[in-house]
């Protein structure tokens, strides 16, 4: 059996403050196999995005951050790589759709130049004209009708929704082995969200891409993901196949998340005792089925 595309083992993260280190991730473990769509689900501030940024190596050089545990990509321990080797992976073998595209895109370069830089990671000899042609084709797949105008624009000249589509197109451009999608539909209408999910599914089917899908939208997660990890206050509190978790959520936080989904019939959100000593602990988890 081949190694998981992404394997996170006992990941801990702390930030240095005036009174010492404050731990925000408490032993996160998860894996994503080739061709698998895994969702990391939780409320804002639960630790989803910082987990993704550690995978990409974006927090390792912060003096205030202390990271423990193991992150492996296709069997290789990422801690064994130097800065240049990590940088070479980003945008080619692994890519990420960031939640805030306007701040993630470089404001002083045109969109076309940024596409050219991304595509050169996979093909250093690609010409600018060829890169722009490829970029226009990908942008059309995420419903950007005036690709020429967009490629000639700076990020601040585009709406949040257009920047989001640009970010999605860039992440998909080199057909990475691992795609991390951090709330990819935040600034998009439901039609474009559906097209984005379709593109990610196609990437999985055609290239056996592994997808780590970060979201708090349980409706989208149920439609898209094969496996679910529920994160609460920096801990994985429940995990399992999507249908098993939805059909029989065991942890009170998982049940609360599902009860918070708007329904036409109304209903309330169950009370959660956040001070309960065992609430944040992964006491009840589904066995991961279908893995060998």
UniProtKB/TrEMBL annotation:
Q: Where are the transmembrane segments?
A: none
Question: Can you tell which superkingdom this protein's organism belongs to?
Answer: Bacteria
Name of protein = ABC-type dipeptide/oligopeptide/nickel transport system ATPase component
Recite the UniProt keywords alphabetically: ATP-binding, Cell membrane, Membrane, Nucleotide-binding, Transport
Q: Which PANTHER family match?
A: DIPEPTIDE TRANSPORT ATP-BINDING PROTEIN DPPD, OLIGOPEPTIDE TRANSPORT ATP-BINDING PROTEIN APPD
GO CC, any one term: plasma membrane
**Domain ABC transporter, which positions?**
6-258
Q: Does the keyword Cell membrane apply?
A: yes
Q: Where is this gene product found?
A: Cell inner membrane
Species annotation? Hoeflea halophila
One GO term in the molecular function aspect is: ATP hydrolysis activity
Biological process terms in GO annotation: peptide transport; transmembrane transport
Isomerase as a keyword of this entry, yes or no, is no
> How does it sit in the bilayer?
Peripheral membrane protein
Task: Name any one Pfam family assigned in the record.
Answer: oligo_HPY
Q: Which family does it belong to?
A: Belongs to the ABC transporter superfamily.
Where in this protein does the record put region Disordered? 268-292
Task: Please name the Gene3D superfamilies in this protein's record.
Answer: P-loop containing nucleotide triphosphate hydrolases
């Amino acid at each position: 059996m081949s190694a998981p595309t992404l394997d996170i083992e006992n990941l801990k993260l702390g930030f240095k403050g005036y009174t010492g280190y404050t731990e925000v991730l408490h032993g996160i473990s998860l894996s994503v196999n080739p061709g698998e769509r895994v969702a990391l689900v939780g409320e804002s501030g639960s630790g989803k995005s910082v987990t993704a940024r550690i995978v990409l190596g974006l927090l390792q050089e912060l003096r205030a951050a202390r990271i423990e545990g193991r992150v492996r990509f296709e069997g290789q321990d990422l801690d064994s790589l130097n800065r240049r080797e990590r940088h070479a992976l980003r945008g080619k073998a692994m890519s990420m759709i960031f939640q805030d595209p306007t701040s993630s895109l470089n404001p002083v370069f045109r969109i076309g130049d940024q596409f050219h830089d991304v595509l050169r990671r996979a093909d250093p000899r690609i010409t600018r004209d060829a890169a722009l042609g490829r970029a226009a084709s990908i942008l059309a797949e995420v419903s950007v009708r005036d690709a020429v105008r967009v490629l000639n624009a700076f990020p601040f000249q585009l709406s949040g929704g257009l920047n989001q589509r640009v970010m999605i197109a860039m992440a998909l451009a080199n057909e990475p082995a691992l795609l991390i999608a951090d709330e990819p539909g935040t600034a998009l209408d439901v039609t474009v969200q559906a097209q984005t999910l379709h593109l990610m599914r196609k990437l999985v089917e055609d290239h056996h891409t592994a997808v780590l899908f970060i979201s708090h939208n349980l409706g989208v997660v149920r439609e898209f993901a094969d496996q679910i990890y529920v994160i609460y206050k920096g801990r994985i509190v429940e995990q399992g196949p999507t249908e098993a978790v939805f059909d029989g959520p065991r942890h009170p936080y998982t049940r609360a998340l599902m009860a918070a989904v708007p329904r036409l019939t109304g209903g309330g959100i169950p009370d959660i005792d956040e001070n309960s000593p065992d609430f944040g602990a992964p006491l009840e988890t589904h066995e991961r089925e279908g893995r060998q």
